[in-house]
Structure prediction request, 258 residues.
Amino acid sequence: MNTVIEIKEYGARIGGGCFGFIAGPCSVESAGQIHRIAARVKAAGASFLRGGAFKPRTSPYGFQGLGAEGIELLVQAGREQGLAVVSEIMDIRTIDLFEGVDILQVGARNTQNYDLLRELGRTHKPILLKRGIAGTIKELLLSAEYIMASGNQQVILCERGIRTFDGGYTRNTLDLSAVPVLKELTHLPVIVDPSHATGRASLVEPMALAAAACGADGLMIEVHDDPGKALSDGHQSLTPGQFERLVGRVRAVREALK
Ligand code: PEP
Ligand code: MN
Prediction:
């Protein structure tokens, strides 16, 4: 039996034939920003709102996120729009702040933080586990095992691209073969994040369509209402209009393959 991740209050589902759209900004920046984006992605067909509050930035001088306030704003925006919310947790000591968050994300930089994974295995919330920056498929599966062996079976796997030698045109190499491989090996839902995988807004839709075609159970897409002014990852963020188009085209691909 395939695992289905469901947030009942919102009828939000991923897995077992249900395709879930997780959308929202890289970082929660302000109340206005997250509320505007939440309304637009909901209208476009998303059932999950993402937004980082604790950001794992490569540079310690980059915007680090709004922290506790960011979580609060994200949860409010999600409740207002009837969207389940997803946010990244980096440190188990902040777990109490995530009470209103429906799905806890483990980012690529923490995929092999085994103490964090074990602790998250003791929680009762679904975990969205990203593939490590240079992580193998086996390493991803074993990281999922850390969570499940501690008692939490609700894990979503996310392919988000792996470190590439190119670097000039794409941020990472999106390994779409990971999708059918993981689906052969596990019963867990597998989603794709083409935003972090490519690093460029123009590449997000084509890769999202390919992800849907090769059997992904959902997509995580960065959306910002003013990408040029985003405090993080503006280059790879879609506008709400571009996201709406993507949803329509992904649905068409899924329909064609039925
Ligand atoms: C994110 O989704 O906000 C993020 C930081 O992604 P990743 O961990 O895949 O780099
Ligand atoms: Mn980002």
Notes: The mean pLDDT is 97. The radius of gyration is 16 Å.
